[in-house]
Amino acid sequence: MNGKDQINENELSNINLGVAIDIHTQFGPRLLENVYKKVLAINFKT
Fold first, then answer.
1. Does this model's pTM top 0.85?
2. Among 1, 32, 36, 38, which is 20 to 30 Å from 24 by CA?
3. How confident is the model at residue 3 (pLDDT cuts 50, 70, 90)?
């Protein structure tokens, strides 16, 4: 991060993409999009 309490758009995008890739790696490519959305939402709540 940039040392502030805020993050910029690039940092936020990198975090989101990293989490999405981790989820896809764990669950694989054969699930419905809604499943990925729910797992992603749960991951960001924790």
1. no
2. 1
3. low
Three-class SS state of 16: helix
Give the pLDDT confidence score for residue 5 in this predicted structure.
74
Smallest CA-to-CA distance from 19 within 30, 32, 46 is with 46
> Residue ranges of the domains in the chain?
9-45
Residues 6+ apart with CB under 8 A from 44: 19
Q: Which helix (H) or strand (E) holds 28?
A: none
Decide: helix, strand or coil at residue 46. Answer: coil
Q: What are the tokens at 24?
A: 């896809």
